Amino acid sequence: MSSHYTPSIYDVSVDSTKCRLCGRCIENCSYDVFRRSEEKILTYPNNCVVCHRCVAYCPANAIKIKKVSTPYRYHPIWNEEVREDIYNQARTGKVILGGMGNVRKYPPIFDRLVLDACQITNPSIDPLREPMETRVYLGKKPKKLEFSGSGDDVELKTELAPNLKLETPIMIAHMSYGAVSLNTQLSFAKAASNLGTFMGTGEGGLNQALYDYTDNIIVQVASGRFGVNPDYINRGSAIEIKIGQGAKPGIGGHLPGEKVNKFISETRMIPEGTDAISPAPHHDIYSIEDLAQLVRGLKEATDWKKPVFVKIAAVHNSAAIAAGIARADADGVVVDGFRGGTGAAPKVLRDHVGIPIEAAIASIDQKLRDHGIRNEVSVIASGGIRNSADVTKAIALGADAVYIGTAALISLGCRVCGKCYTGLCPWGISSQKQELVDRLDPEVGARQVQNLIEAWTHELKELMGAAGINSIESLRGNRDRLRGYMLDSNLLDILDVKTVGA
Amino acid sequence: MCGIIGLLNKDGSRIDGRSIKRGLSIMNERGNGQGAGFAAYGIYPDYEDYYAIHVFLDNMKEAKANVEREIERWGYIVYSEEIPTNDIRTFEREQIPYRYFFKPDTRKLLGHNYDEKDAIVKMVMRINSKREGSLVFSCGKNMGIFKAAGWPEEVANFYKIEDYDAYMWIGHNRYPTNTPGWWGGAHPFGLLDWSVVHNGEITSYGTNKRYVESFDYECSMLTDTEVVTYLFDLLVRRHGLTPEMAGKALAPRFWKEIDRMPEKQRLHHTALRLAYSSAEINGPFAIIVARSEGFIALTDRIKLRPLVLGKKDNTVYVSSEEAAIRSMEPNLSEVIYPTAGEPVVETLDVVL
Amino acid sequence: MRIRSKETSSVLIDAEGLDYRRLNKKVREAVADGKVKILISNVLGQRFIGDGIDKNIEINLTGTAGGDLGAFMDGPFIYLNGNAEHAVGNTMSSGRIVIHGNAGDCLGHSMRGGKIFVRGSVGYRVGIHMKQFEENYPTIVIGGKAQSFLGEYMAGGVILVLGLEQDESVDSYVGTGIHGGVIYVAGEVDDTLLGAAAKKEEVDGDDIEVIRGLVKDYNHYFNRKVDVDKMHFTKIVPTSSRPFCNLYTHE
Questions:
Q1: Which are the catalytic amino acids of B?
Q2: Which tens digits make up the pLDDT trace of B172-193?
Q3: Among A140, A101, A403, which Cα is nearest to A249's?
């Protein structure tokens, strides 16, 4: 033990009166918490990350995990986390990495927005018995339509740009092959295909196991340009240029070497075992006109048949950036708020950089309307969408659709232990070790993701019906159906939402 | 609640306002005395080339001076007067209805490239958002809106609508849901020669309002119906859609139906929904939208508000209730029940 | 069947110029006075005629009846020579309404018993949430066409649509949410017109007898000669009595 020894936060105990010594805990735990010593199972709780794998698989219900804390004297500023981060950096001299999304206690704005329902002056609509439309089209739209002729001979002169058709406004976010396992991506792909929605490849390229599902896959072109060849961009239903992500605005993707096995190496075309740290910017985009070049370059490469979206992290001037993206021939802007997840990011960027998605969407929607172009591009929100109420509020604030990342992983069994960067995920979700990956059955996984999105879509219909709306386009940007509760007046102005009671 | 009513003489023959007053009063159950109004077309034949700007003035001093100063920046007032009214003891005379016959002159505004109609719209939006004691409530050629906070008979008698002869009348009996009765909030709402009466409440108002506001319309009347007027002006006048197409954009077919349509129709309906998603009106509604050539009647896609049409010789009637139509014309040759979300477009058979 | 009324216990009311409150007051006074047949002429949009009356009297109207004709009634026989507006027979418990014309939306809303016959066509959401229990069994017969959402959320009773002189008998979302009762429609009903929880079934001998009985009454009221044997009918019933139970899970 050293002067920087940090005590274990958890205590893992095995009740020997129940334990059958079957050894499943030892097999299942990828963090070496359990070992057998003669007729007992011994535990090393310092390694425990509360992934719950052991508890889920113990047939005797013999395992108990408790949170134990060796207390520190209370101090409001030098709290436990601050102290332990310093011990860590004094010991290592390194940048602290974390997984998943922002852990700071900023109150979620979604939790301070409430939705309207119709009473008397307006009827609510019954989603079980009357039509309730959640179909969304993502892509470039015409400013107006021109027709020629009249009566039965009327012809549409305006050409429509290619759009993606979604039966629900919920899509599965980009999580790269590398950050997550191939079985995770297969689960997502099958679910997206069954639901009539889309999933994203993330920046790790497209493994050929997914080729059957490309009608429901959006391919990503990120700063590392992994896996980007003509076949890749033409297979996807759409292309997303990833400029940034909410978990780490301003820096590129980060796949630790532990997770770069031979298949990842093949797909990304980098040596096995090296860290795949994507560049911070795209080195061919140093200003907005360069982005327009890349957008058009990709459209030329795909004969203008695929919508091209641009993903940015939600930062201070997202609205102006989004307006620039809209004018750069992009079909849509994807905005990832500061609660967006990640497999690995420097903790200090994950927790301190970026702005909430609610504010970003509201100001982007407003800015595009100020320019008279809101309807011509799509706006997609992501970053901490936890349930159908968040989905509904995001749409009312101005989004056409949302991406879910962490929620989709949780539907596969993820416990959000935040240790994805170790490559030891015992659920097979974010690991690349085959024996772990095999634990996730894509058929079962797909069913679970599909269940989640179906349930949320139905709840969305109930919320729309309660608000007297039967088409999702009438919910989009409809700030009047939201009210803020315990939000300050400046933020209410930015959100263009009134306070409760008004 | 609200009751709406309209009639069009397709041969252009003109009748006075007694008939529409009768039809509207039959529906007093649908109102609560907090607002009523009429729009009449063909009523100013001697000034048919000028825009008839109807204004509510708070007073005859500063308010009148302010509005005239603004109007004269955009053109010439050819003639003006108080709109003739009767004294109706049963309601409050909140404002003074005034009218200006006006000719825009876009050369007066150096550096601007507006066509005449855009200039009128801009002028009216400016006056109504500045709120310097005046409110423009009608601004079309050879037509006029007459409205106030009162029962239909009171408002009709106040404005002496039996003295006007029109080939088309529309009327509204108000039961406000969200704002108290004030003269500006009564229907019809108008812009240029558009006038709109509406029964229902627009649940998509937040979306529709923000959409039209990004094209320089300002919603200043505190009533959701106003946005319908601007949607028609945008889609039909500025974008060139036919009234039927505009109706299809505002009350689009369901995707389940569109998916089963033959290819050309499917493309048209899909294009309308994609381009005009923020124009879609959600919530229960029955509306009558009138313009010089005739009217468009439309209900929401699941028919939550009643609407019925009747025909007799050259006249078409439309209303929330059949009884209201029969009070104007007891012997109809045809009664038509429109389909939910299908626009019914009736136009003059002659060019006037 | 038409009640044969004794002439001494009938009265004629001229509805011209009467608002609905005064008109209905007169009707109620007549009922209280022991009149068994009330004739009302010049009806023009008055609402709530026959509302809440629980005696087996006859009301015979000419003109255009306003909304809620026969609402909440329990017993009377109302005959209308003309068109009716919305919510005819709204939440009625028993009695009969016969309309020699067309009717508007929501006819038979929450009907709990009794019968409604319409010679012509009707609007949207007709027969919405009809209910039945033991001998309380509501019936709606439409001669012409019924528009969308026919029999929405139906829990009991029977609706028959004859589609006479029409291109189609019904429109979309037929029987949406139906969980009890039955709808018979003359002609074919395309699967795309069926609402959630509704399915089609073959019409059998018992069904034909039911339809025959209803058409016999229809022919009698409107002096027509509809012949059931020359027509083909589609039967629409619930897929289950709990069509939506699979949507819900517990906290």
A1: 2
A2: 998 877 677 788 889 999 999 9
A3: A101
